[in-house]
Predict the structure of Ribose import ATP-binding protein RbsA.
Amino acid sequence: MSSEMPEVLGMSDRILVMHEGHLSGEFPIEQATQEVLMAAAVGKQYGVKQE
């Protein structure tokens, strides 16, 4: 478990992201960009417009 993005991206095969105590995303390292992970961490879906 870590909140350090470079550490997480450098050491992981898959990444689980939590938001407000709940799992908000599971990403294989091939799909895990900083943008995608941060969107999941704040409760949003990356690339989806929210109105």
Remarks:
- The chain is about 30% helix and 25% strand.
- Residues 5-41 form one domain.
- The mean pLDDT is 85.
- The two ends are 32 Å apart (CA to CA).
